[in-house]
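Researcher: Quick sanity check before group meeting.
Model: Go ahead. Protein one:
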Amino acid sequence: MTPHSGETRLNVPRCTLFVELIMNVDRRFFLLGSALSASAYGFQSEKPVGTGMIGVGGRGSFLLGGVLRQPDAKVIALCDIKPDRLDKAATTAARDNPATFADWRRIIDNKDVDAVFIATPPYLHSEMAIAAIKAGKNVYCEKPLGVTPAQVRALLEAAKGNTKVFVAGQQLRSQKQFQEIVRKIQEGVIGDVIMVKAQRHANADLPHDGTSADWYFDVTKSGGYLIEQSVHNLDLCNWAIGAHPVRACGFGGILMYKDDPPGRTIFDCGSLTYDYPKGVKMSFTQNVFHPGSMPNGNQYIYVYGTKGAVDLMGSGTMYPPGGRGVQPVVLAPRQQEDQFAHIAAFYDSITKGTPPPTGVTIGATAALTSILGHQAMVQEKVVNWSDLGVDV
């Protein structure tokens, strides 16, 4: 990365020597600063970034498609324990002729792999990410970073002093509409944030005979819907509020899909209240039995402030306080988003030294927010953030 191909001389005869001296000094400091900035985020040469994929199932195959679209990436190796998935991924990435493995450690040990994508069942994320960090790899780890406080704590410890790029898969933060809305919220367009109402509803359970059914319905492996899926929504709420919760309470249960599939241990619904610094409140619900034809389904986040409220996940509209005659204002309209923007940002951090869009702290905080809510539902009592025993 070279900022300038040459220097521009100033045509001032009486101070030519002085100007040349200053310009040379400034240029040296500029180049030094650029190099330091780049090295802080794992900057490397312009050669293709050798990439290894651990897990190429539903989510992993999506990530692989995004990697193949990046001009700075080359897929060196693929890993999955299911042969059919591995074969399909190898065919998709045939352009790069990647090696294939069933043992994820073969990806970590490969010297030609500079960047590792982790898209396995969530209970494996922390262990694999820690190994990749210790091996000096740039890491893109899917959400959540862990399903227990201990897993998140261990990853945070491993990431201390890490000079390589680490990106958590909280990809909603790379959507331009959300970035613009949250920026305006933080600038005070709705005044002080005082409350958030959010939900993530689906019209059906995950397929009971799907390729992920062997692990998803085991809460120790997936964390359940709140931890594995709503971690995205809760992260947006944290982002808009500008803090993480200090405590949570709520209730969850298996009300529709009782023992279906057999041995199921994840909730199919839940209702939570989160308490944030400065008394900010958030109400969050999740279920997988909201009929598709029924209004107000799917996902939304309403952010309420002292000067108005915003539909964060919908139209991006701000509604000033008051009743009729008050005109709403669109803070950021819906736009065509690059579905692979988060992946592109990961490679930009590696090759250009730009700051990662979501580092390990953001990913850890999102995971812990989900874990906090899950523990509150399981224990049916108020659980404090400090009870998790993790510093972020």
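Researcher: Fine. The other one?
Model: Protein two, sequence then structure:
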Amino acid sequence: MQHHQIAMLGTGLIGDFYSAALHAQRSRDRVRVVYSRSEERGRAFRERWDIAESTTDMKAAIEHPEVDVVVIGVPNFLHEEAVAAAAEAGKAVLCTKPLGRNAEEARRMLDTVERAGVFGGYLEDLCYTPKTTKAVRAVHAGTIGEVTWVRSREAHPGPHSAWFWDGRLTGGGAIVDLGCHCIEIIRNYVGKDNRPLEVLCHADTLVHPIGDEDNAVALIRFESGALGQFEVSWTFRGGMDLRDEVAGTQGTIWVNNFLRTGFEMFSAGGSGGGYVAEKSEAHRGWMFPVGDEAAELGYIDMFTDMFQAIENGTPPRESFYDGYVVNAVMDAAFRSARSRSWETVELADWRGGQAARIGSGRAPETHDGQVVIKREILPDGRHKLILKDPASGDYTDRVVAAPGS
């Protein structure tokens, strides 16, 4: 059984979550050295996670002779530099979301790892939450038929680090921060061979005095005819809202990943208050803790997938190419928000397949030569059919006995 020595780049909240996951379930993998732009933060992080070394030299951390995997958790504007250094050093590289600040930057990073022949994994944790993993598996097994519509929502009061709020460093506001999660969740449900064609987006700055959007809603049209819908907000109050809905021709899935998932706690202000859950704003009254955040947010299963893929020489569930596609969809969303019209998703490199139109391989149900539009069961057990005459185009309804009666 292999074990890995990791260079952790970044000491923010994401670095804490990554280290908690790495040093927990897969404890044979250890962070060997941590890089921080601040010597003080690096030292504190090293002590917090029992790491042997810290440094303010990114290149030195990446080229550490005992390190074989580089985990990138630094701000967006440093991703490309870090990826290039890791690829040059011949190290496997795992990069946090979003891969780039735009599709052009993401494409360059994809090209960099592929030219170097190193492993590139995209750390999109919310695609690995236990609920999402099980729901996606059910969808791909055909449990709800063909997917027609997916809604993914992420909303909270805003990021926890100053650089997040500066679009010059990040590439945008809530769309770049949260929309990347939603887009890739949607892609997992509709199928990654299903090409995203165009986007219609409304974005606005409603609350925070910043230069980028703090709220946005977008529609993504896929080749199959399926529609994706994402809603993102940096102005939601009351915690972090992570919800998904999936509609299919034969069923529906609702997923609530984080807020009010069955663990509720009330405090009138007793001792022992403090951190409740990520983005939680409450320390008294009714609160909604999360049992194991690293697990519930997908970090543990994400790293398990990444390291197993490295060891087996197989692609991870989320790759640099996936990150590039997500950036291309976000670029189209920004263009749409400016033009106030549908904008094409510009993918210079499409590696997916070709998705069939929803319903194209399915023969409609018929009754007495007429097409059954809908069938419903009445209180007495009989069936009511809504029928369409294929010759005239007329619609009628008819009540019939239950099949087999």
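Researcher: One line on it for the slide.
Model: Residues 10 and 74 are 5 Å apart (CA to CA).
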